[in-house]
Amino acid sequence: MCGITCAIALKGYCKPSERDRERLTQAIDQSLDYIKHRGPDSKGFWISEHCRVALGHNRLAIVDLSPDAEQPFHDSENQIHAVVNGELYGFEAIREDLISKGHRFQSHCDSEIAIALYKEYGISFLSHLRGEFVLCLYDSRAQLVIAANDRYAIKPLFYTIVDGRLLLASEAKAFLPFGWQPEWDVQSIKEVGWLCDQRTMFQGVQKLLPGHYMTCTSFNTISQHRYWDIDYRDKQAVDVRTEQEMVVEVRKRLLDAVRDRLRADVPIGIFLSGGIDSSAIAGIIKHLKDTEGAHLGTAPKTDLINCFSIKFLDNDFDEEPVARRTSEWLGVKKHTVEMTEEMFAAHFEDCMYHNEVATRDLNTVGKYCLSALTQSKNIKVVLTGEGSDEHFAGYKELLTDFIREPDPSWSRTTLDEQTRLRIFNSLEGSEDSGPLEPPSASFARKQVNNISFLGYTQTSALPDNLFASWTASEFGSADPRSTAVTHTISGLTREHIAHKWHPLHSALYIWSKSALPNGLLTVLGDRVEMAHSVEGRQPFLDHRLTEYVMGLPPSLKFKYDAATRTFSEKWILKEAVKPFVTEELYTRKKHPFAAPVRYKVDGPIRKLFDRLITRENVEGLGFLAWEECKDLVKKGIEQGDRTAYGQMVLVGQFVTLGKRFGVKQAVPEFF
After folding, report:
1. 631 and 564 in one domain?
2. Is 110 annotated in some ligand binding site?
3. Which SS3 state, helix, strand or coil, does residue 505 take?
4. Where is the Glutamine amidotransferase type-2 domain (predicted)?
5. Which of 38, 177, 335, 432 sits 20 to 30 Å CA-CA off 58?
6. Mean pLDDT value of segment 221-236
7. CATH at 265
8. Does the annotation place 80 within a ligand binding site?
9. Does 166 lie in the same domain as 140?
10. Contact call for residues 34 and 171 (beta carbons, < 8 A)
11. What is the arrangement of strands in the sheet containing 206-207, beginning at the earlier edge strand?
């Protein structure tokens, strides 16, 4: 993985010239320094004639470590130029095919195929790419800039306009050398738009959506376009496949996805928790190593597999003992970072600076420290288990939407209609079906077949009473959080949700487009990993696997056992990975990956948030009410109020980001 930063002068707003070259060179060089952690191995940039386009790249050398693979890349005619961040799997076969068609390459790096594919297929080249990636390509012949990300936005790309230049970068902090003055997007913060759509927490800074590309045509027109989307089988179409057939196909595709992600010219490790997802990845790698002689990158075959785990001390949900038993069963080498209260406090602010988004849980700090441990062991690449829950239905709260309707696609279900209705009536509207929703959520739910998943936007939101009074006049007093998700859903997708997809799949779609890319893959993925120059690879998000899983009956994701009267989440995945995991993991219920929420009343966490949440700091934000925030630390730490604790963590993050980025104090614009 790497980091990119690009600047494009827009027609009519900026008239670049050779006299600007020195200033532009300095700005892009400094911009790359801001995100050097993403690629410390080399730095390069290219500036076009008349300084219209500048492409910059920080390299984390993973495939082809030679100088030939340093970026930006250029075609042989010096007309197509590109920077690429990420990994493109199966590139060897693509490269050979392109060579047979007359294309030439200067390196053996996976990223270089992007230019040749574009020259061969035009913008359709994106459908030929598989992996975790972001790229920016400039075609000087057509005066066309193309920026694209992978299908799940595993790799981020942000953009804004400053002084007539369109700026694109892997992280917003890279905009600072170009004169960007950060301002809070208070409406996005209040609506949790940064979690649900293309907004961020910064005014005027947007992100590229999953499976999208952006074009800037003739240095003038900027637009986003979708090139891939999630789709599910018609809920009325009866599936005639056998369970065993589908289990085998899931296993085959997962094996292929893991096998592809073992390609690297550096050693590879595994992030191992106590859950079935990462444990299955570890078990599959051990299987491939033993049966096929697979290498973990350049690690010698005789070496033990390196796994990395977090131990949350004094936590009800600590999964490290399970991970330890798994590592012993597999015979792998496990490295563990023990997260003390002192470590959480010491690394909180640095972690939030890298995240650039908010979260209620300190588990992100644990993952930040885990990545630091991984880097210290000279491991540049890790395989992780993210994305499984969003396709195999791994969250127990999704049960309500699974039983919201019958599943006519699976005629062999043991869940009779009377039982389904009884269980549904006991769950709908209860805490077991997810966070309780405000009355205003009913309007949003009508738009998405009444699924209950919309309440999850509430878990990342601050309540209205914590906001300064002027925000109600500026943005309205109605609770908009539930509709932030639905506003991003296209008309065609709404039709699918209303008539084609089962409610479980509709809920999984919304999760995969919101909390997965903007939350999970950020605060537990790209940002905390790349903060320490560690590349994360996610086999469960290989689109060949996910497209197959989209076509599976809901009843094989949540499976009902009539004998025990229980549901098994991710049933088909458990069956597919059963040969590679312990019996403990095969039968274990999912537990959240969560950090402790109880801390000493006079300990490091209390002192940290007492220092952050002061009148001066809160009023300096401009959009929060000090009188409503002043007791959050006392309630969250001393009184053990879980709601106040989460709000305390969120407010502390806003203060940290405000100070680190020099964000201007928010003020009302219209009132």
Report:
1. no
2. yes
3. helix
4. 2-219
5. 335
6. 96
7. 3.40.50.620
8. no
9. yes
10. yes
11. 42-47, 53-59, 2-9, 165-169, 158-162, 206-207
